[in-house]
């Protein structure tokens, strides 16, 4: 499968998705360059992992909302302690996941 990157905004599309203009930045089709095989392989290989990180971030955000509800509920100190820890761990996991995805992007794994 062939992939093309918009040289203006970086959007990557499959061959069948190309239109007259970039759907993100409106650059003309001529601004799309085919990815070399190594870069295309990185793109394909990393897509699943990046989707997993997106799902992880979404799931962690649910944990943060649960933790906030538990802290606000304030049933007793041991409960608040668990929910406070949950919130702290969730924040750390989210930041780790975002940093990893940023690292992927900087290495062309996107
Ligand atoms: Zn573009």
Molecular structure report:
By secondary structure, this protein is mainly alpha-helical. It has two domains: 35 residues, Rubrerythrin, domain 2, CATH 2.20.28.10; 69 residues. It is built from two helices and three strands; from the N terminus they run βββαα. Strands 2-1-3 form a three-stranded antiparallel beta sheet, with no helix packed on it. α1 runs antiparallel to α2. It starts with a strand and ends with a helix. The model has no long low-confidence stretch (mean pLDDT 95). The protein binds zinc ion.
Oligomeric assembly: single chain
Structural class: mainly alpha
**Domain unit count:** 2
Approximate shape: elongated
Helix count from the secondary structure assignment: 2
Ions, cofactors and other ligands present here are: zinc ion
Mean pLDDT: 95
**β-strand amount:** 5-15%
Q: Give Rg in angstroms.
A: 20 Å
Please specify the SSE layout and strand pairing.
Blueprint: E1 3-6, E2 12-14, E3 32-34, H1 37-73, H2 77-106
Antiparallel strand pairs: 1-2, 1-3
The chain binds zinc ion.
Zinc ion binds at residues 6, 8-9, 11, 22, 24-25, 27.
Structural features:
110 residues, elongated, single chain, Rubrerythrin, domain 2, 3 strands, binds zinc ion, mainly alpha
Question: Could you provide a short overview of the structure?
Answer:
With 110 residues, the chain is mainly alpha-helical.
